[in-house]
Amino acid sequence: MNFNELFENLKVLDETRAAKEWKNSAGQLHSTDGKPSYMSSNRQHVMWHKNGKLHRENGPAETWGTVTKYTVRFWKDGEIHRTDGPAEIRNTTIFTPNLTWYKNGNIHRSNGPAAITFVNGQYDLDWYTDGTKLDKFNLPRDMQKVADSYTQSDAEKEYKKYINEAESFMEKSLKFVEDVDNPEHKE
């Protein structure tokens, strides 16, 4: 079943269903066996927690959206964080599609722009370190070398790569939701 079929199946489910939560013995939201700890009543917001804090080792800890509009966020120990790509991948009609890199809760990237936003047919590039926005023409020397050689083509490649990755994560989240809402599913 593809992403669009999964979404169509979810749309026909009863809209009055309740949100679902899974908690540890201390009453904190907690994921086990790779399964989420929270699903909203409309099933568009799915989250993974570790002892009450948003956290996931092998994928985003938060997925939010539908087939055409979504946000995927990576969290570690309650802070938005990712070392191998953008911690937030957003493709919505409410906000401009973008990729944002975070480290320990702060917008940060040393090997490229920390925020790539697609606006009016081109990619806007913003440079940050430890949460501080930097002037592209007054960067630290090592970052300046990267900025001088980073092109619109580089931004487009990264954008396409991570948007495809996000769609794969959304498909997996929707599949889990479908399994939970299946009357034969056992918790």
Q: Total number of β-strand segments? A: 16
What structural class is derived from the secondary structure elements?
alpha+beta
Q: Averaged pLDDT, please?
A: 85
Query: Number of helical segments?
Result: 3
Shape: globular
Secondary-structure element series: HEEEEEEEEEEEEEEEEHH
Can you summarize the main beta sheet?
10 strands, antiparallel
Question: Any low-confidence stretches, pLDDT <50, length ≥5?
Answer: 1-16
The main sheet orders its strands as: 1-2-3-6-7-10-11-14-15-16
The proportion of strand residues reads 25-35%
Count of the domains: 1
- Fraction in helix: 25-40%
Distance between the termini: 23 Å
Query: How large, in whole angstroms, is the Cα Rg?
Result: 18 Å
Short description:
The chain is an alpha+beta fold.
Q: What are the SSEs and their pairings?
A:
Elements: H1 3-11, E1 20-21, E2 38-39, E3 45-47, E4 49-50, E5 53-54, E6 62-65, E7 70-73, E8 75-76, E9 79-80, E10 88-91, E11 98-100, E12 102-103, E13 106-107, E14 115-119, E15 122-129, E16 132-134, H2 141-149, H3 152-181
Antiparallel strand pairs: 1-2, 2-3, 3-6, 4-5, 6-7, 7-10, 8-9, 10-11, 11-14, 12-13, 14-15, 15-16
Describe the structure.
This protein has a ten-stranded antiparallel beta sheet with strand order 1-2-3-6-7-10-11-14-15-16, covered by helices on one side. Strands 4-5 form a two-stranded antiparallel ribbon. Mean pLDDT is 85; it is low at 1-16. The longest helix is centred in the last third of the chain and has 30 residues, at 152-181. The protein has helices at residues 3-11, 141-149, 152-181; strands at residues 20-21, 38-39, 45-47, 49-50, 53-54, 62-65, 70-73, 75-76, 79-80, 88-91, 98-100, 102-103, 106-107, 115-119, 122-129, 132-134. The protein has one domain. By secondary structure, it is α+β, with helices and mostly antiparallel strands.
